[in-house]
Design goal:
eight-stranded parallel beta barrel, about 900 residues, eight-stranded mixed β-sheet, about 15% strand, alpha/beta, homodimer, elongated, 31 strands
Chain lengths: ~900, ~900
């Protein structure tokens, strides 16, 4: 395989399909040149293969001769030679990876200039000022970008020169001063590097190419890839292209243009241009640009040529394109194109519009495939409208949406301030069930500890409330917090963006959460595509959340966590009484009180989800979660002393305390230790279901046993459930009982359950994969412990490609899921299979689950639209 | 398949091989009758199939008619009829499961007697007293065993009758009184059950058979099976046999006999007999028995017949047999035989003797296969010589061996007392590294908390010191403990048996740890059998343990845990300094101090294991294990206040504290967080190895990375190790460096590592399965949390067949191991595979690992002989 391809190389497959090899920019340049025949300055691409080879073993053998051959070809095409003292060819060198990566090397322009060729350029252009300005720009660019020097070194010299020659504007600096500046810049390079500035254009070119290769592993590029989940082993391509100049004269110019509006999706050209300028001037924003439409008057022929190109690009790419172009002395050159980035609003509008385009159109499947989860997040939640000026801290992006409010450090203070009409952000180390009233009252939540499954994160996601958690640099002390020297006091305004994990000082302007009309159209298409293939349910624990989820399109509840009912302020004392009970009677009494409360909860949920399946998970968390902490009580004991009641609580808390609660007495193990508990829950659920039937409803109940590891365990628990169901139904009229069919199933959330799914399926009507716990146990990663501290290091070092708690680890956890699917179906062909871990709302994971053969995914209510879209995309991808 | 087989049924396979179906007792009776033609009273066996069918669906259809047919056949053989008022047939009914189970139903004798047939018996035997004594015994036995009545009801009536008739001895109670007593007993039964005592022998028989079936699920039987690891789904057989009477006259008698001495293994008959008595009298010990040899004088013909039978039995069973026999009026009847239980000493002697037997002999493979782990434990460790009279508590059997000493509740007090020459048992809630001096000074250790991998358990096993841990009923308070109302104070003598987990009050007599000469012979044979097939290494962390392990026959170290070196009293402050270090310099200084200490440790280990491989695991436990507890420091802070140093420790302890340390920042993750740590350890190890080579030694170093989850992770760590090895070797003479080949490998202890062993093998020269952690993560079981509380309930309820921490869970964890072996070898055919979890010392697990294809097992030093034996047995079983 060659290491280089000229833009006009006749590829066997469309260049667009070779982005792995050519990078995005190179592929698009080749597409425009070799397929569309558009006016593109000639050039060539050095492949990502060459980059990967370089990163492993240094400069690849044979690359030099290939580059030389390509340069010769380019020289022939342009009729100029690189470094020619009379009429030099100049080239640009640009990095271009498969995915666009702002963290990497920028462009080097005007490469090929040296002390001799600059004179030729001056003669050829009859513009000495232009030639020396180009030269000094090249030296400083090369110094900064290729040699890694501080840009200030050059800027200072330039300012000094302006001062010395008594001019204010850059444009007024004359040719002589610019010639001197070129000399000064070269001296700066020599001084800083100990080497003279390279005069041989071949050396310059090799230096620039190597710099691009190296930039792949630069700190910013690596961090960008981690953030954007781009694999570290792709490498980048390098594009070497003949220079054209938009700054030659009044018949020259440069611009950027979109084939339609990337902000709104409105049809018609959109963009900016500048007369007599180079591309960087447009981007830099130094001069005021003109709207693209102004080109119509100024350069009518060029404008109509450009509009023709826009139409061809849209038709060819079947999408909105983003372009860069230059006009050199009346001739239009296309420098770059790509399918353009767009806002969520625009993405929805374009996708729907393009299905009805004249001349060419996309299918509804394509439309659905083009909208991303991020697009939907943008229209569903407020966001920072601009980059905040004072970013205080970064934390984990726990619940999307942005919020502005006054910082309060205590739940009750926050609630009181909200009562007074203030917008409030609750700032606290971590939250617990006792803080819920303050969390409800707040616009957003910021915690300094905890991971993506901490109390704050889970509760906020359930409510669709913005939250940033685990912002470790935030040091809270009393009613203020300090972060990197800045102190924020109670009442100070801060802004948070829970979609990006950002915390900013002061009020940041927010975009509105405002789904356009195309939102419903597109999701309707998505639903038709995935119908009967992959259902979407929601995780919801109460009637309000269930109703909300249904509104977002959930087709049932995949996970109703009953422990959240236990943690409510009015329930906790009863739960504690049950745990402390010294006699069977006391325990039964407490359970009976809980039954009454749970029944009301279930009633509300079944009503909200009438006609749709509701999977209720029996109690899962370790009992000590319902008890106060031993540390606090012991401290109190040693200082102010404990009441009799507190002493009992301390003793129970000690008894139930565990070294590794994640692997302790929880799930079905609780049922084994406290046999009345699960029966009580099933009784409450069935009584609620009976009441719903009698009120004319259609409840569909699925009872789920958590944390199973053996068939025998599930058999025992299934017996409890079945007996209690039978007992409740025995006491109601036959026609009511007939309407209630109850499924009994289990979570598959331990590796053992996955491996032994064949046996476990003998006792299960359905499996629901608990991929959070399955991931924790398969990796031996406690989320609470490793997510803040270790995960970033692991991602940055490339020890993990992805955070396995965000996107399912296909090779490890995924294999266990696939094994369980296969074995479960081998035992029971019609077993119902779903997933209710956090991965149920992650598009890439959803695609995996569809491929693995699951029947449904379940996620938090606000994530349901995204899951509906991702499910449809998974179906499209496989069809 | 029929539900019944007569003893003389001609089975196609030897009955001995049908124990599953016939039970042990039934199979042996059939073997003696149908194969050996010995004089056995006729009878039949009801199969375990019938029992299983009964337990699932009640009395099996067709069983009644089969039993009737068998009874008819028995009646024909004996020329008597069941219930015949003139000459009745009497039968015994006995349970007999595949494995001997003392927890189950005993024997019912004399079944078939009723108000009429008792008269016939009296006439036929001309012994009215005998007949009515038999009847009243039958009624009370049936009442107790079949009907479940309290035996006291009958005993009281008997005492009253003796008093009324003014006799002292049972033998003096006359026939009239016995007849009356039979009436009284029947009235007792009627009163307690509301039903008259069954008179129809068919009803009696069916009642007895059902009682045997039911007894399979009796509480004692279930508990026994849990303890002895017998599956719950086997069921029991029932044996119905014609009665013969050893208590008819002076020419009658009964006895138990062994074909050689079960205590010492000495050749020649051994046993007891009684003239004119029934079997139960021998066992009950009411009358003084005669030694079996006395039979020679008393019944010379019978004696010589019996000796002939003994010889035939030994030749046939090729083993020592245990028999019961009865002489009825001069005729010898064999009632039962089985391969006899024996002590460890006897087992070793017999196994070796029988390879040299005249006439018949066993092979060395058979000899090796016959000695069990328990046998070796008996000769390797002291044991309770008898059942203790006051058993205080049961805990977990953490480290085998028994000890007697005065209870001390504090490590320093224990050490001081030992200094004064007292034998000491350290009693404490749990131990920590700070208690080590007291543990060393003690004869044994008793803790009230912690599981089989708690600090106390691991350390004690390493030293071969008796330990009972997690004795939850022991409530320690200051310098005393209370258990079920008994209080033991400091200085009181207690005894513990760490092989059985027993704690007794006072001094219990102990057997000696005293391996006979056959021990070395047999293990030598075992070694030859397993040579080149399955090696045995030891887990040892210091020179003394390594030397000890080598003496026990270890062929290397499979796991050297470096954290134990960190926990030593003089090291801990340095470790803490490293953790607290605020600058890179401070950290480097602390690491340097640790390097010096570790090098000395490694030197001692490599010297002790010279020429054998030593696998050193780099630091594994979470850092907070080296810090004081936050609870204690916070308490101190709130009360007496903290020093500056302590305040720093508290802050570090808080920083490193984890919710689930088992799944937290440990293993290779530590290496990622503290990059200098692993390099320091490897440097120390390699410097020690260099020193050994220079001293003429032959160190064989294997470096092991713990807790790997991805290939990338291991690749990174392998790089650190390889670089450090290269760096050390670069500084020594070439001929020294050439002698040092270092293997680099990893633990496979997370489910992910097992599943992705193919990738991980790319970076690993060897795998060592950490089956402790693998079991914890596969099940989601934290040993510390579930082993005390939950495991017993799970075993008793049959939710688990075995404690997966003792014997590997073949279906779940085992499948992951097998997957990893297959995938690891697919990548690297010659990868070395071992296991260093606790399962490495468990015979059944060792057999699994051999079948799975591992190259070695590694276990604690004192367990090495057992592992050598078990490894050989695994080889024999597969060959």
């Amino acid at each position: 395989m060659p290491f280089t391809y000229s833009f006009d190389h006749k590829h066997r497959r469309p260049p667009m399909e070779r982005k792995d090899l050519l990078g995005g920019k190179g592929a698009n340049l080749a597409e425009m040149t070799s397929v569309l025949g558009l006016p593109v300055p000639p050039g060539f691409t050095i492949t990502t293969d060459a980059c990967r080879a370089y990163l492993v073993g240094g400069w690849p053998g044979g690359l030099d001769s290939e580059v030389t051959r390509q340069v010769r070809k380019l020289e022939r095409a342009m009729g100029k030679r690189l470094g020619d003292p009379s009429d030099p060819l100049l080239v640009s060198v640009r990095s271009g990876a498969k995915f666009s990566m702002p963290g990497m090397m920028d462009t080097v322009l005007n490469l090929g200039l040296n002390d001799e060729s600059v004179k030729g350029l001056a003669v050829q252009t009859s513009d000495e000022r232009f030639a020396y300005d180009s030269y000094r720009r090249f030296v400083s660019m090369y110094g900064r970008i290729v040699l890694g020097l501080d840009g200030k070194l050059f800027d200072e010299s330039f300012e000094e020169a302006k001062e010395r020659s008594g001019v204010d504007s850059d444009a007024d600096v004359g040719a002589d001063v610019l010639r001197e500046l070129a000399e000064t810049y070269k001296a700066v390079v020599a001084g800083a590097t100990g080497q003279p500035f390279p005069q041989d254009p071949a050396d310059q070119l090799r230096g620039a190419i190597e710099a691009v290769f190296r930039s792949w592993n630069g700190a910013r590029a690596v961090a960008y890839r981690v953030r954007e989940r781009i694999p570290h082993d792709l490498g980048t391509a390098v594009n070497v292209q003949a220079m054209v100049f938009g700054n030659r004269d009044g018949k020259s110019g440069t611009g950027v243009g979109f084939t339609r509006d990337p902000a709104t999706g409105a049809q018609g050209e959109y963009g900016d241009f500048l007369v007599n300028a180079q591309g960087e001037d447009v981007v830099a924003g130094i001069r005021n640009t003109l709207p693209l439409s102004a080109l119509r008057d100024r350069f009518p022929k060029i404008f109509s040529e450009l509009m023709g190109i826009f139409a061809r690009l849209e038709e060819h790419y079947r999408d909105m394109c983003d372009t860069e172009f230059t006009i050199e002395q009346g001739k239009l050159w296309m420098l770059q194109t790509r399918v353009g980035k767009r806002t969520g609003r625009a993405a929805l509008r374009m996708a729907v519009d393009m299905t009805k385009q004249r001349g060419w159109k996309i299918t509804r499947e394509e439309a659905v495939a083009r909208v991303t989860a991020e697009h939907l997040d943008q229209v569903l939640h407020p966001q920072f409208a601009e980059k905040p000026s004072t970013l205080l801290a970064k934390g984990l992006a726990a619940s999307p949406g942005a919020a502005v409010g006054k910082a309060y450090f205590d739940a009750s203070d926050a609630a009181a301030a909200a009562e007074r009409g203030e917008a409030v952000i609750l700032v606290t180390t971590e939250t617990s069930p006792e803080d819920v009233h303050g969390m409800i009252a707040s616009q957003g939540i910021l915690t300094s500890r905890g991971g993506l499954v901490s109390h704050a994160a889970v509760v906020a996601r359930g409510w669709g409330k913005p939250a940033v958690v685990g912002a470790e640099s935030v040091r809270i002390s009393g009613t203020s917090f300090t972060v990197n020297g800045t102190t924020v006091r109670e009442g100070d305004v801060i802004s948070i963006d829970g979609g990006g994990g950002e915390v900013a000082l002061g009020e940041v302007a927010l975009t509105l959460a405002d789904p356009p009309e195309e939102f419903a159209v597109l999701l309707g298409w998505a639903d038709r595509i995935r119908k009967g293939k992959l259902a979407v349910r929601a995780n919801a624990d109460n009637g309000a959340d269930a109703a909300n989820a249904r509104q977002f399109g959930a087709e049932g509840i995949g996970l109703c966590r009953t422990e959240h009912m236990f943690l409510a302020e009015d329930r906790l004392p009863i739960v504690r009484r049950m745990i402390l009970a010294s006699t069977a009677d006391d325990e039964r009494d407490a359970l009976e009180e809980l039954r009454v409360a749970q029944k009301a909860d279930f009633l509300a949920i079944l009503e909200a989800m009438d006609g749709l399946p509701v999977t209720v998970r029996l109690l899962d968390p370790p009992l000590h979660e319902f008890l106060p902490s031993t540390e606090e009580l012991e401290l109190e004991d040693a200082t102010t002393g404990l009441s009799e009641e507190e002493r009992k609580l301390l003793s129970a808390a000690k008894e139930w305390k565990e070294s590794n609660p994640m692997l302790g007495t929880r799930g079905v193990r609780l049922g084994v230790m406290k046999p009345g508990l699960y029966q009580m829950q099933v009784r409450a659920l069935m009584q609620a279901a009976v009441e719903r039937v009698e009120a004319g409803g259609k409840p569909r109940v699925e009872v789920m046993i958590p944390l199973t590891v053996t068939r025998q365990e599930l058999g025992l628990a299934r017996g409890w459930v079945a007996d209690t169901v039978a007992e409740v139904l025995a006491g109601v009229p036959k026609r009511t009982a007939r309407k209630l069919e109850v499924l009994i199933g289990t979570m598959i959330e331990t590796p053992r359950a996955a491996v032994r799914a064949d046996e476990i399926a003998e006792e299960a009507d359905f499996f629901s994969f608990g991929t959070n716990d399955l991931t924790q146990m398969t990796f031996g990663f406690s989320r609470d412990d490793v997510e803040g501290r270790l995960m970033n290091a692991y991602l940055e070092l490339g020890l993990l490609q992805r955070n396995p708690f965000e996107t399912i680890d296909k090779a490890g956890v995924g294999e266990l899921v696939a094994t369980a699917v296969e074995r479960g179906r081998a035992t029971r062909a019609n077993i119902k299979l779903g997933i209710c871990g956090e991965h149920g709302g992650d598009p890439e994971s959803i695609a995996f689950f569809y491929d693995a053969g699951l029947d449904y995914v379940s996620c938090s209510p606000y994530r349901v639209p995204i899951a509906r879209l991702a499910a449809a995309q998974a179906v499209v991808a496989r069809s």
